[in-house]
Amino acid sequence: MIVDAHLDIAWNAISAGRGFLSAPAPGYVISRQSLSAAGVGLVFATLYTAPAHAKHAMSTRFVYENEREAAIMAVAEVNYYKSCDLQLIGTKEELAAYVRGWRKGKVAAVLLMEGADPVETPSHLGAWTDMGVRIIGLAWGATRYSGGTGAAGGLTDLGLQLLKAMKRKKVILDLSHMAEQAVEEALDEWRGPIISSHSNARAIVPGDRQITDATASEVARRGGMLGISFYAHHLRTSGRASLADVVRHTVHLARAAGGPEFVGLGTDLDGGFDSRYAPFKKLEELKDLPARLGKHFSRAQVEGVMGGNWLEFLTRALPD
Length: 320
Prior knowledge:
The protein has one domain (2-317): TIM Barrel (Alpha-Beta Barrel), CATH 3.20.20.140. The protein has 13 helices and 13 strands. It has helices spanning 9-16, 32-38, 55-58, 67-83, 92-101, 125-130, 157-168, 180-189, 213-221, 232-235, 243-257, 289-293, 299-317; strands at 2-7, 40-48, 50-51, 63-64, 87-88, 108-114, 133-137, 146-148, 151-155, 172-174, 194-196, 225-228, 263-265. The strands form 3 sheets. Strands 1, 2, 5, 6, 7, 10, 11, 12 and 13 form a 9-stranded parallel sheet that branches. Strands 3-4 form a two-stranded parallel ribbon. Helix 1 packs across helix 4.
């Protein structure tokens, strides 16, 4: 089973009309059909909500001005996933049962909130875990909780409160998009399960959106996971990205982490960008990745990167 730890399925459907249940929209690669055909059996499906300033960069009118609007948008995305009859995995028992019964063609999801502004106050977190949210990244750009991509800063007082609430509710922390100061402060405070769902090696492609070797090492030391993004600008500084770039970042982060067992896929292939910014034209080309990884890792390690590592992590990190 292939696991992809980052897909913005609902946001693309609601904001841009690229529905999940039909074939991929022209020029795009993700749909239930393409995931099923490629052997992807589990995805981390995001609740992404765009702040108002994002419309300048993302050409969208589906944006929020305040936390209440963000919450309404995220609830709409939860409801979209339910309308797709997409099974939401929320516990270790549900995961084990799904894996036992999985066959190619089946797709389920774990809900990941990307940017925590929909959580109106930390005291509201329980409502989101009741809806199925199991992973939260505090930032995209800056949020009320944390500095983020292109917005330097640390955790706010609300951010510290939210981390405490997440620990009580057994929610996984996602460091992707958090500003460097916020990452450092979160690592000082956090003692729960931790991932970086879709951030590549800063040593290869500089920028605050990427992850440092030191952070990769620390996430691995804590038993966490690092997801490789397939977005061209995360893979290389210029030119057309390819699977060779995916392998390059995988090998680098595996070395930084102390082994490939801490690395998986977090493609972000439905992150609002079309196939011109992906390492291939169709998702079926994902079948070529294991052979490329096999030049660097054993067969068992390749199977781990393709999905087994995420499944093992979730077996430990999801609530009972």
